[in-house]
């Protein structure tokens, strides 16, 4: 009996040992899998976007990608799809032989890059195309497009003698052949150099440089206009708030040489901001003309006013070779409730500006609070109650502030801002106030919590200044 008891105890002990080992193996296995999973998640979720890059993110194949730019770190769920692309110019060098009977070797150096001002919108088709391409594929796509354009140009019968004798015609032809494909992915030619253009005529190397003589719109640009007017047919006073999407008119400007026409040649040297203000004035003229013809009953028809505004603005914009892509308009009757705009007092607009490029293209993040007041002569919508009027004013003020503040920052450098914050604030206030004035609004003050940059430039300047102060203090 004693032997049987001892044997039973040994079996139990053995089973307990086996059970403990199995439990330890399970714990070790699950612990290893857990740590491995945490490592995979950490790698999958963290995406760093360097300065001069942009990140496209989407959750599905059919979703329009969201765009993020300029030096930030993102944590993305594993089910998100993303693509990181450079927005620097890409340089290409080509050598191609001209038509066989000439034996010319022509060297090309071409710079291509994303051509998108802050207020320009990349279309859904462009974003979807870019999203499907990684950086290397983008470069391959551009290289094939440019090489095809070069071959179409210099191997054509026109190369001798037209392209060799008419200045700029060769580069214009290459740009025309490649621009349509490049615009499919939001790109355009910035600069082109052509070497050894005419070795048969002159036995020397030539170099010509060009920046494509095109306006600044390779995609739609938003222009917001709000104001007060009178329907001439009935004498009804109305208030309107409109957003126009405008882009270049390809039916008018079919090639870069069309900008040399007398009607458009003055636009070639006009900078982007001046061109934008010119378009704004022409759209305003179109709105004023539309108010003459709109009947009162059109205010109750969905889209009727927007259609009329768009047609009239489109007609005016032909003067600057532009066209209206879309128009969203709210037009309301003016009444008696808001005859005294002082009752509205002031409104507060909070905007967290992210990655605004300053003059040297360093991206700045500036969270700011803007207090906006209402002038006595503000063109307020009289038939709207105070809540509706305030909402419309805030929308207008926010659109103007976002546009003017971005322009003001783009005209300064970090050094200017650090030298005098007061000067920087006055500079911004002046530009914003001028933009608000046509809408009967004015800027009361700006409160900026902090100014940072994603590349660490400001922190480096602060550290340098602190170190200089310490050295100066120690030397005394």
Polypeptide structure, described:
The chain has 476 residues and is an alpha+beta fold. The protein has three domains: 89-210, Band 7 domain (Tetrahydropterin Synthase, Chain A); 220-334, Band 7 domain (Tetrahydropterin Synthase, Chain A), CATH 3.30.479.30; 340-476, Band 7 domain (Tetrahydropterin Synthase, Chain A, 2-Layer Sandwich). It has eleven helices and 16 strands. The strands form five sheets. Strands 6-7-8-9 form a four-stranded antiparallel sheet. Strands 13, 14, 15 and 16 form a four-stranded antiparallel sheet that branches. α3 (135-154) packs antiparallel against α5 (169-183), α6 (272-293) crosses α7 (304-317) and α8 (386-410) crosses α10. It starts with a helix and ends with a helix. The relative contact order is 0.08. Mean pLDDT is 70; it is low at 115-120, 198-218, 336-344 and 376-388.
Low-confidence stretches: 115-120, 198-218, 336-344, 376-388
- Please give the order of strands in the largest beta sheet: 6-7-8-9
Query: In what range is the share of β-strand residues?
Result: 25-35%
Number of helices: 11
CATH domain class of the largest domain: Alpha Beta
Number of domains: 3
Q: From N to C, what is the helix and strand string?
A: HEEEEEEEHHHHEEEEHHEEEHHHEEH
Helix content bin:
40-55%
> Rough shape?
globular
Count of β-strands: 16
């Amino acid at each position: 009996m004693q032997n049987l008891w001892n044997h039973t105890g040994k079996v139990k002990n053995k089973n307990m040992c086996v059970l403990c080992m199995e439990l330890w193996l399970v714990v070790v296995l699950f612990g290893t899998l857990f740590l491995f999973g945490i490592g995979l998640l950490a790698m999958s979720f963290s995406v760093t976007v360097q300065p001069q890059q942009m990140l496209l993110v989407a959750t599905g194949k059919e979703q329009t990608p969201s765009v993020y730019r300029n030096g930030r770190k993102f944590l993305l769920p594993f089910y998100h799809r993303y693509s990181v692309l450079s927005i620097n110019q890409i340089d290409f060098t080509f050598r191609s032989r001209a038509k066989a009977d000439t034996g010319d070797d022509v060297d090309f150096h071409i710079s291509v890059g994303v051509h998108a001002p802050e207020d320009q919108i990349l279309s859904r088709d462009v974003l979807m195309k870019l999203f499907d391409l990684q950086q290397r594929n983008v470069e391959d796509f551009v290289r094939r497009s440019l090489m095809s354009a070069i071959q179409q140009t210099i191997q054509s019968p026109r190369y001798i003698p037209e392209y060799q004798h008419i200045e700029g015609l060769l580069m214009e032809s290459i740009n025309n052949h490649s621009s349509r494909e490049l615009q499919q992915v939001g790109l355009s030619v910035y600069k082109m150099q052509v070497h050894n253009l005419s070795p048969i005529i002159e036995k020397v190397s030539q170099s010509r440089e060009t920046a494509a003589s095109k306006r600044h719109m390779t995609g739609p640009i938003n222009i917001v206009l709000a104001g007060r007017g009178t329907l001439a047919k009935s004498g009804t006073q109305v208030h309107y708030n409109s957003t126009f999407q405008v882009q270049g008119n390809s039916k008018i400007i079919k090639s870069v040489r069309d900008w040399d026409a007398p009607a458009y040649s003055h636009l070639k040297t006009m900078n982007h901001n001046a061109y934008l203000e010119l378009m704004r004035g022409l759209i305003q003229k179109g709105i004023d003309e539309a108010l003459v013809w709109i009947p009162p009953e059109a205010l109750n028809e969905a889209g009727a006013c927007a259609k009329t505004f768009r047609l009239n603005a489109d007609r005016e914009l032909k003067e600057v070779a532009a066209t209206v892509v879309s128009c969203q308009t709210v037009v309301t009757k003016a009444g008696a409730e808001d005859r005294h705009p002082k009752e509205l007092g002031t409104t507060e607009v909070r905007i967290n500006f992210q990655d605004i490029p300053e003059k040297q293209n360093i991206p700045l993040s500036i969270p700011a609070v803007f207090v906006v007041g209402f002038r006595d002569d503000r063109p307020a919508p009289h038939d709207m109650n105070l809540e509706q009027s305030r909402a419309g004013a805030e929308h207008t003020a926010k659109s103007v502030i976002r546009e003017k503040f971005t322009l003001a920052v783009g005209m300064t450098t970090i050094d200017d801002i650090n030298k005098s914050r007061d000067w920087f604030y006055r500079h911004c206030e002046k530009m914003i106030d001028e933009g608000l004035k046509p809408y009967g609004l004015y800027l009361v003050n700006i409160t900026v919590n902090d100014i940072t940059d994603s590349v660490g430039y400001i922190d480096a300047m602060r550290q340098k200044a602190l170190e200089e102060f310490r050295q100066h203090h120690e030397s005394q």
